[in-house]
Amino acid sequence: MYKLLFSLLALSLLWSPVSGQGDLNSPVPLDPAIRTGVLENGMTYYIRHNQEPKERASFYIIQNVGAILEEDSQNGLAHFLEHMAFNGTKHFPGKGIISSLERHGVAFGRNINAYTAQDETVYNISNVPVAPKGLLDTCLLVLHDWSNYLLLEEEEIDAERGVISEEWRTRRDAGFRIRNQMTPVVTNGSKYGERDVIGDLDVIKEFEYQTLRNFYHDWYRTDLQAVAIVGDFDVDEMEAKVKELFSKIPAVENPKERYNVEIEPKAETDYVLATDKEAGQSSIALYIRHPEVKAEDKTHETLRTSYMKSLASSMISARMQELLQNGTPPFINGGMGFSGYNRTTQLFYLSATAKENDEANAFKTILTEAERIKRHGFTEGELERAKTTMLLGYENYYKSREKINHDSYCKEFKDLYLTNSPMPGIEYEYNFAKNTIPGITAKEVSQLFFKYFSKENRVIVITGPDKQGINHLSKEESLAVIEEVSQTYDIAPYVDAVVSSSLVEKLGIEGKVIAEKELPEFDAVEWTLSNNTKVVYRFADYNKNSVSLSSYSKGGSSLYEVNDLATLGVMSSFMSNFGIGEFSATDLRKALTGKSAKVNFAVGELSENIGGSCRPEDFETMMQLAYLRFEQPRFDKEAYDAYMQRNLAYVANMGNDPKKAMGDSVSLIRSNYHERTLLFGEEFLQAVSFERMQKIYQERFNDASDFVFFIVGDIEKEVAKELSAKYLGAISSKEGSENWVDNKVSNPEGNTKKQIALELTEPKATVKIYYDNEIDYTPENRIAFSFIKSILTLRYTEEIREKEGGTYGVGVGAGLGHYPTAEGTVSIGFDCDPERSGDLIPLVYREIEKLMKEGASDEDIEKTRSNLLKGRVESKENNGYWMSMIKSYYIHGVNNNLPENYEQIVENMDSKQIQKIAKQFFESADKMELIFVPK
User: Fold this and answer.
1) How many domains does the chain have?
2) Is residue 504, in this structure, part of any structural domain at all?
3) Is 13 in contact with 431 (CB distance < 8 Å)?
4) Of 89, 310, 511, 563, which residue is 20 to 30 A from 364 by alpha carbon distance?
């Protein structure tokens, strides 16, 4: 959900529309559309009717329980217990929960999931069809069992030890290890620094069964639980069912206190240096702890303060972007702002990603910007822009309220239950924002910044590579930088330059529509404009207040030689820093204040496109931006140099990251070391040319007649017709056409098998297997590949994850490409213990052999069929579906919206068809097996 921009919700229609004043100390009322109550056993429930998506419902159980409640002997068991909830309950033994729900298209991982954090554990069953008889009752029974009836059988516990051990292995990258070094200092030695959720590997492998059961019986109890149910159903009927079923769960007698962990204040500044051999970047941060507002103290004043924090963050972000735009950037990235941290603590932070051995300069620069605000405050002009942008966000959120989905409401119920985050209803929120935000002054926001940029509870955090030749700031050096900045007297106020808001002063010509063709199969129309470009329009208001623009032109990077590929590879990201027309990137942001419209471009291997989005009232602005992308692109050498310097600093230590090494190896091997396969790094960036960027862009976007534009959304036909003709029709045209070139980049033929040794901190093997083969690009084959992907995922989850405990998860990808060659790819990947890769890889091949020899089981086919059909129904209720269907029709020549090209194929797919296509593909496919292992 929009989260009200800031996680707290809004105020009442009863507030004065003129002054926005009222009793700021009063609590925020609850949305009257919410049905809520507390059962006699202490369980809370929240129920709400909603229709996004239609004929669906979502079920959550929220446990006010997390890793923070673990004893040392239980370190990791809150998370372990979450896993066990899917391994046998009173009414659903074994994998009964998953198998029962997947028959109805409710897929494990996508629709059935859970997470554990330090202070909470949340389970969800999302987007459940409401029509099947008894299915909603089944979901309620699952929540009922998750509350108090986990079986926790010893065999299942032991089987899950391996899965979680592999999850532990998978998660332990440089970022994880650095967080574990810094968190104890940031949390001032509190328990938050001792509980990282995944836990202690020795505990996971060795804990006694009763230890887990003790944690379960101590903390999974009705007075610490809430159920949240949102969907397209009768609320009265659902409430009666909840009361009937959940009231039977007994309350725990003499329950333990559910305590909160406070972080003790500290006057002096702390310091921590956290390094890792695999870290790619150096960064320096200053964290300043502040107490979080207690649940019982949250009022309208809390909400108003959250607005001021958001306004401050928005203005700071704009200043940071401007700082990095020109000259020699002082750091790679930088920022400051406000952040929630845990249930009892919030942070004000300053952070910068530093160039190698330049941490002092980065720290000094970000501190200077903070000191500038502290001394001089924010300006009225930048505050007005921030307020305009914020109010626009609320307006868009309000107009799109019918597309707030079930899960968004459930997640808000979670915040309401756990931390009393207000939930008063959308009209209440919107009106309070409109009445309150305009009255906030620059003086108030500046004073808030001054309050949070305090001198107590500070922690200096330095992170980066553990590498010879890299020197990190010491505590003494860091404190010296802070002292130097505080004693600098010539920090000038920020100067807010005023810019024009007129994007297009005059068009060279105005285009017009010269031909019109109806597309009844899509309820769309195609216009040919006077410059011979084509525009395809379809009205769609599934997503109200939203319009999308896309386009397509053949060619792309395939038309260029190898020495231009680096320039093409970074062109879109570099030029986003240049601005457009007469506007620098900074000036463009100012000029677009109060408007919700954006347009970007991309150049792919075989095509280029212009794409964008807007709200209906800003459709003309979007058309102007599209026009300017063609007719007045901006090439800013100063911005280019600044962004290049940041990129060069960014890549300096990329080689430390084993994931980068793996990705590069895969790219090279998969393309058979083709010369057009370039690896991103310093050499890549040195090959980029500003002059060639300008020339190539003008070649790719100089001929409107070679483009087809697609407009889908909540915009009236005549408005779209008039303004697309006016602006898109005014783009220069050469009356020509291009096509892409097949540069013959392909995978190696036959069987390829490589084992690659890497320097790894944690012992881990990464297995990547690929199959490639030519196959016709037909609807039947494409859908068969969706079945193959789903079926293999089901089989590997059962055989490799659950039975073997060999990995946290096996990722399967399967898809067909059309151009330049019709071919299919199936990819399979997982992490595991290096000692076990030899045992697990044969299981991958065994399931593929079974698919070719025997086909798939009826159960797996039905699960996949149900999920595909369910997803198809849901996707049709979104504007993006129609953009995808129409664009695909123009590119591939197939109408995938027709039932005979989707629904009928899915409904009729059987084991023999899957076996036939699997055999056709896998039997003669090129196969690649890559295993990355520790040196």
Assistant:
1) 4
2) no
3) yes
4) 310
